Amino acid sequence: MKKKVFALGSAFTVMLTTVTFSSGTSIQATSSEEIEQEINELENKKEDITEEKSTITNQQEETEQKIATNQAEQERINNEIISIDQQLTQTETEIATTEGQIEETIQEIEELEKNIGELETRIAERNELLKNRLRTLQQNGGEISYLEVILGAKDFGDFLSRSNAVNTIMGQDKKIMDQQKTEVELLQVSKIEVEEKKTSLEDQKETLVALEKQLSEQRSQKETLMAQLEHEEEELHKHQMTLQEEADLLASQEAAFAKLIEKRSADLEEAKRAEELARLSQESNNGGDSSGTPPVTSGSFMRPAQGYVSSEFEPRWGSFHYGLDIAKGGTVPIVASASGYVIRSYLSGSYGNAVFIAHDIDGQMFTTVYAHMRNREVSTGQWVNKGEIIGYMGNTGQSFGQHLHFEVHVGEWNGAKSNAVNPRNYVSF
């Protein structure tokens, strides 16, 4: 693809060496047939460039579609990463909560173990007390001892007191036994329950940690894929820029070939007009029609019209006259003093029918002005060759008698005419 573009560019360069747009335009092909052949060749090359442009355009569209697909995938993966981050945050919160619960459970176990120690101490003391009481009962005959206590009462009141005391002692012994049994059983159940809860919480923590690791790995994979997609998008954009550069080059070449075709088409007419100019110049050199075009001379500029200089580049009537006036009666053609582009061709209130032409002479820009013409034969933006008729001498605008007002400016023309120079510096009159 690029080789074809550069090949077309080389062909474009070759064509530019044949048809030159700068001052002193040279046309190697002067006959109508040769010019038409060049036009056909230019048309063919222009069609090749147009076809190549179409190919580049299709590739640009494909690249844009790939970029759009890539960006959509990036958006999808980015949304997944956001979801994973949210899950990670939730999992980390659950882990922190579970760790807090485990810590609370550990504290509960420590407190229970402390209580267990105290209970075991009390239980051991109760057991010792109960053993002593049992030994005493056995030594004294068991329940008979209680009966002896009751029968040894002095009176009924003492009997009641002794009976209540015995019942109280026996009830307390049973209550102690029952309480001892209940606390021991409750203590064992609590210890088992706390241990089970602690184990459950540890299992839950391990599960959450594993989930966090899984989510972290998944997030890492997504970020790696995201980076790959971003790199791919960057490469696609670079490729798109390369395609755009090629498209711009092709567009520039297409426009250049269009200008060449336009220029060479105009050359078909200019060739005929050049023959007429040569004929008029020959007649002038041979003493022919005194009102004909001036001869095309060597040098950067030539005389723009036949006639005599009626006013110089000098102060005049309280101001300064920034040009030369060339006067002559009859139908007097005015020609371009040098090749260039018509900056403006219009009817001015002061200059009358006027033409401004820009010239590039060995890299220096000049502007020539032709004023007070009867009519204008060229249009704004048109290329004119040195010696080509641009109008006829007249008396339009602020003018007194038929003449041509001719100015030369080194650089651009401006209202102050600060760049104006004496035309005699460049033209022999």
Task: Tell me the layout of helices and strands.
Blueprint: H1 2-18, H2 32-139, H3 143-151, H4 156-285, E1 308-311, E2 314-316, E3 319-321, E4 324-327, E5 333-335, E6 340-348, E7 352-361, E8 364-376, E9 383-384, E10 389-393, E11 403-410, E12 420-421
Antiparallel strand pairs: 1-4, 2-3, 4-11, 5-10, 6-7, 6-9, 7-8, 8-10, 8-11, 11-12
Describe this structure in words.
By secondary structure, the protein is of the alpha+beta class. It has helices at 2-18, 32-139, 143-151, 156-285; strands spanning 308-311, 314-316, 319-321, 324-327, 333-335, 340-348, 352-361, 364-376, 383-384, 389-393, 403-410, 420-421. Strands 1, 4, 5, 6, 7, 8, 9, 10, 11 and 12 form a ten-stranded antiparallel sheet that branches. Strands 2-3 form a two-stranded antiparallel sheet. The longest helix has 130 residues, at 156-285. Mean pLDDT is 78; it is low at 1-29 and 287-291.
